[in-house]
Design a protein that fits this description.
The structure holds two protein chains of two kinds. Chain A is mostly helical. Chain A contains 16 helices and two strands. The longest helix of chain B is centred in the N-terminal third of the chain and has 34 residues. Classes of the chains: A mainly alpha, B alpha+beta.
Chain lengths: 588, 343
């Protein structure tokens, strides 16, 4: 992509422009819209299973309308309950917060923020989206097979997931789940390699690594995590496919199920858990780091202040990225693995609190003495800092093997990861959408609808997940279809109803977002060139005549870091990266 | 009909939203052009809302322990559980202090430094002293916490079990079975290929240590006597969770796992505990509302790893009693040898 190609506008048909596009900006939108569709499915599922938990055995016509024979008379079947939590988790973790979050913002921002005409390989990028699309379609198809979709939990531990005799969801539904995830991994790898190569090689003149916006640092580390860990999940999935279909015994040993004695011996179900969590834990940061990158950008821009401690922020991202590879065992304290191994994983896990604390303190100091502009994006970013603290702190309990014994696999875990990873990441994603919508569509989203969306979402998010800690501390295991089988959980009826009411409220609040999003695409106000008065390069590209190649003329060169906000001696409270240093001006 | 009504409501909501937005847009147009996207008024309202909601939530967290504290499991009734309780309390104090300080700072800062026309933010890029401080303080505190945690973990998982009574807990979809080791305190060998007829656990009939084993459907434990539980599973992964004792261990097919602990209170003592009587009152009120008969407190072992459709109801009763009561109960149970020869 050399500069001579600047006016190289090949005639684009509908197909090459909107369907098989190689323009990173279009691919970003494709990822976003696909993820939004998947997100709606996952939200609906969560409302359904929350209804079951709050008011078990009460019939709802709406359940029968959606679930049909799986909810006779509107009462959900236990197997379908498990299927719903499984697919809710799978979609949210992989399709919304990995494919959706990374796919959208990495594609949109990497070329724009580093000053490149497109990704290193536009073709691989297109391929990455279409693998993601097919994978989404397969996952959705799996919802319609007779025996139901996969139901062994999003972690699909064998033997439960390996044996169709163990539960209906481990039949065709599980096969489709594995096919879908394999395609997803291919998509993630194609995308990941492209992101890394692009950031390392295609930076414009002057864009040194130490001048990269923190979004780029977060995206780079995330992409590296993905490339190193997703192949391991692929191998785990392949071995599981072998065990399911070809009679191998990687994960199976000494099993008698439904009166049938299986011949497989010598395998270990724990092996699968090691392979799964070797991806699974970095995955948590694959979800979280992009959100932290986005909010770093938004917090700094909206506070009109440089991000505090840029180098420490980069260091924390690197430290978190590195540590995320050596903590996977904390998901397995109760598998019966050697207690000494538990000690090692406790040690490495609790270390993550240090870079996380640094990030929180740096966010707080960035706000201190700022001139905070409350854009919807900024509200979601502040929400992220709050949930990152709340959810991060309970990690000190779950990461400590001795304390984990009594809360492992209870609702306490559900509360913890939904707050620290689910809410933080989705808040980061919302912040990103509100912030870069003008760049994507050349229009502004309605800010008042954004405010309504934020406030209802923020309140109902804590309303759902804060009380859940108490449910966990009461000893309620996760993935229970109903709590009524145990007298000791009978005192939890009201708190469960409260959680469900907030869950429904939170789901309804998303209507404001979806409406605002699609309405603004067509009817929104035209966006100004640089609506948030931001320093980064993406705001120097044309807002309305968006072209494949980004800049109509030469790519601008970069003369400073991205955080010169409210710099003394500057004419305005921001100095874009393309403005050369004045004579005698210090870089920072 | 309901489907039609819901469809109607959704359509009307969307149309209503469109109209509201149009009105707002027209109203802003009438006010004349605005050069600022975010006005001082936006900042004021949102900052105030942030302060109220944020601090309100923080205050609610403090209050919630009074409101919902009674839902939390009672203090652990096992020897190692007491050690864990101390670690738990220390960690909780640390967490809550950090939570209140950082959340308060976050919401106060967002309110105090809300944007105003004409204000300028402070240009401040870093402060090495400050950053060193908030890197090293967490590092020191965490080192202490890690050491405390590791020693507690070690005491819990690697105790001296020379005098422990051995009990096997066997999991299958969707029930539990227990096997007592008998007078020799040794469990007879077992293998899944030997399962058949009355021999539901696949115990080796030719192994003499199995003769005095006792297979039962209810777990009895003598108080203040260490028990070494050994876990096996027949089909998929299950997890034996005894929440009142702070005990949990996965049951994995093809693998043997274990957990040793000492119960410190009998079921009877628990039932007579005034705090437990209060809890049971709340529970029985809820049961009465649902039309269920009242119950008394019981310990329970439940499954805590997703294992299939009836995962939510996979349980076995656990009774802790005095040594005499326990001996008398065990005496009544049939040995494995008589069980097999009778069939």
């Amino acid at each position: 992509m050399s500069d001579n190609h600047e006016h190289h506008h090949h005639e684009e048909t509908f197909i090459t422009k909107y369907v098989f596009s190689t323009d990173h900006k279009m691919i970003a939108k494709q990822f976003l819209i696909t993820a939004m569709v998947m997100g709606v499915i996952a939200i609906l599922m969560s409302v359904f299973f929350r209804m079951q938990l709050a008011w078990p055995a009460e019939g709802y016509p709406i359940l029968e309308a959606f679930l049909g024979k799986w909810a006779p008379d509107g009462v959900m079947d236990p197997n379908i309950y498990l299927a719903l939590v499984t697919i809710h988790g799978t979609i949210m973790v992989f399709f919304v917060l990995t494919g959706g979050l990374s796919g959208t913002f990495f594609n949109l921002l990497i070329p724009l923020q580093i000053g490149a005409r497109d990704m290193a390989s536009g073709f691989l990028n297109m391929l990455s989206y279409w693998f993601f699309f097919v994978s989404s379609v397969v996952m959705v198809i799996s919802l319609f097979v007779t025996s139901g979709p996969a139901a062994a939990g999003w972690t699909i531990y064998p033997p439960l997931s390996a044996l169709p005799q163990a539960m209906p969801g481990s039949g065709l539904g599980m096969t489709l789940w594995l096919v879908s995830m394999s395609l997803f991994i291919v998509s993630a790898l194609l995308g990941g390699l492209n992101y890394i190569v692009t950031i390392l090689n295609l930076r414009t003149k002057g864009m040194s690594m130490t001048r990269l916006p923190l979004t780029m640092w977060a995206f780079l580390v995330t992409a590296i995590l993905g490339v190193l860990s997703f192949p391991v999940l692929l191998s785990a999935a392949l071995l599981l496919i072998f065990d399911r279909g070809f009679g191998t015994a990687f994960y199976l040993s000494d099993i008698m199920i439904q009166g049938e004695m299986l011949s497989q011996t010598g395998g270990s179900p724990v092996l699968f858990q090691h392979l799964f969590w070797f991806l699974g834990h970095p995955e948590v940061y694959i979800v979280l780091l992009p959100a932290l990158g986005i909010t770093s950008e938004v917090v700094s821009t909206s506070s009109r202040k440089p991000i505090f401690g840029y180098r420490a922020m980069v260091g924390s991202i690197l430290a978190i990225g590195f540590l995320s590879f050596i903590v996977w065992g904390h998901h397995m304290f109760m598998t019966g693995m050697n207690p000494f191994l538990g000690s090692v994983f406790t040690f490495t896990t609790l270390l993550i609190a240090i870079p996380s604390a640094v990030k929180v303190f740096n966010y707080l100091t960035t706000l201190w003495k700022g001139n905070i502009q409350f854009t919807p994006a900024m509200l979601f970013s502040i929400g992220l800092v709050s949930t990152f603290i709340s959810g991060g702190l309970t990690g000190l309990i779950l990461g400590d093997s001795a304390l984990d014994i009594n809360v492992h696999d209870t609702y306490f875990v559900v509360a913890h990861f939904h707050i620290v990873m689910g809410l933080s990441a989705i808040f980061g994603m919302f912040a990103g959408i509100y912030h870069w919508f003008p760049k994507m569509y050349g229009k502004m989203m309605n800010k008042n609808l954004g405010y309504v969306h934020f406030w209802i979402t923020f309140i109902s998010a804590y309303g759902v997940f804060y009380p859940m800690h108490f449910v966990g501390l009461a000893g309620v295991p996760r993935r229970y279809y109903s709590n009524t089988a145990f007298p000791m959980f009978d005192g939890l009826v009201e708190i469960n109803e409260l959680i469900t009411v907030f869950a429904i409220l939170g789901a309804v609040a998303q209507i404001f977002f979806f409406f605002n999003f699609f309405y603004s695409i067509y009817r929104g106000k035209d966006a100004p060139q640089n609506p948030w008065r931001s320093n980064t390069l993406e705001w120097t590209t044309p807002t309305h005549d968006r072209i494949h190649g980004n800049w109509p003329g030469e790519i601008p060169s970069v003369h400073r870091w991205a955080y010169d906000y409210s710099k003394p001696g500057a004419d305005e409270d921001f100095v874009p990266q393309i403005v050369p240093l004045k004579e005698g001006e210090d870089e920072h | 009909m309901t489907t039609f009504l819901s469809f109607l409501i959704i359509t009307l909501t969307v149309i209503g939203l469109v109209q509201i937005v149009r009105i707002i847009e027209l109203a802003t147009k009438l006010k004349g052009p605005q050069d600022k996207i975010i006005t001082d008024q936006d900042n004021r309202y949102n900052a105030l809302a942030m302060l109220i909601v944020g601090l309100g939530f923080t205050a609610f967290v403090a209050y919630s322990f009074k409101l919902w504290g009674h839902l939390i499991l009672p203090d652990p009734v096992s020897v190692h559980g007491e050690g864990i309780k101390l670690l738990w309390d220390t960690t909780m104090v640390l967490i809550l202090v950090t939570f209140f300080i950082t959340q308060t700072l976050l919401f106060v800062f967002t309110y105090k430094y809300r944007g105003k026309e004409g204000n300028t933010a402070l240009f401040q890029t870093h402060n090495n002293k400050l950053e060193l401080l908030w890197t090293s303080v967490p590092a020191v505190v965490l080192t202490g916490l890690i050491l405390f945690g590791l020693s507690t973990w070690n005491n819990t998982m690697v105790p001296d079990t020379t005098n422990a009574k051995i009990v096997e807990v066997y999991a299958q979809q969707f029930n539990w079975t227990a096997r007592y080791a008998g007078d020799d305190n040794q469990l007879g060998r077992a293998h899944y290929t030997l399962i058949g007829g009355v021999n539901t656990l696949g115990v080796d009939i030719n192994d003499s240590t199995s003769f005095d084993d006792k297979v039962v459907r209810e777990i009895h434990l003598p108080v203040n006597q260490q028990v070494l539980m050994k876990f096996r599973s027949q089909d998929v992964i299950h997890s034996a969770y005894l929440p009142h004792f702070n005990v949990q261990m996965n049951c994995v097919p093809g693998m043997s796992t274990q957990f040793a602990f000492t119960p410190t209170k009998t079921t009877k003592e628990m039932r007579e505990d005034p705090e437990m009587i209060e809890r049971m009152k709340i529970i029985n009120e809820a049961r009465a509302k649902r039309g269920d008969s009242p119950v008394d407190f019981d310990f329970v072992l439940l499954c805590n790893k997703i294992c299939g459709s009836a995962h939510y109801n996979m349980q076995i009763k656990v009774i802790v009693e005095t040594q005499e009561e326990y001996d008398a109960w065990l005496e009544e149970q049939e040995t494995f040898k008589t069980l097999v020869s009778a069939n």
